[in-house]
Amino acid sequence: MKSGKYKCADKDCDEQFNAKVGTIFEGSKVPLKKWFIAIYLLTSHKKGVSSHQLARDLKVTQKTAWFMLQRLRTALGNGSFEMLGGENIVEVDESFVGGRNKNRHAKKKVKNSQGRSCIDKRQCLE
User: Fold this and answer.
1) How many CB atoms lie within 10 A of CB 25?
2) Are 121 and 98 spatial neighbours (Cβ–Cβ below 8 Å)?
3) Which residues pair with 32 in a beta bridge?
4) Does position 117 have pLDDT exceeding 70, yes or no?
5) In sequence order, what are the residues at sequence separation of 6 or more whose Cβ sits closer than 8 angstroms to the Cβ of residue 116?
6) Could you tell me if 34 and 58 are in contact, meaning their C-beta atoms sit under 8 angstroms apart?
7) Of 77 and 82, which is predicted with more confidence?
8) For 51, how many CA atoms within 13 A lie in the half-sphere containing its CB?
9) Is residue 110 within 8 Å of residue 117, measured between CB atoms?
10) Predicted local confidence at residue 83, as pLDDT
11) How far apart are CA 90 and CA 92, in angstroms?
């Protein structure tokens, strides 16, 4: 089975699905990261954002940006945005990416970092 695909829990059902099914992202080849950036850009500007500006910001074609904005505006207009996970609790995990201090070149070592220090590491939300 491909990465990111899930199987139905029912033993009689052999359907496969992914996290985009049943959302505004379904049927789109645009990565979710770009969708979330588009949502942020659309909601953080007072007057909204044009498809040309969104295309420049996301490095996609104007046609793709227009398609994304149409889906987002439709979802915002009819109130189809629901809490992620419905009534269930959604857990978010964070991780810090970077090598160990002892494995670094002398010039790149960080002073006063012990053990699992995250002073010089990049934070990622998963």
Assistant:
1) 18
2) yes
3) none
4) no
5) none
6) yes
7) 77
8) 13
9) yes
10) 61
11) 7
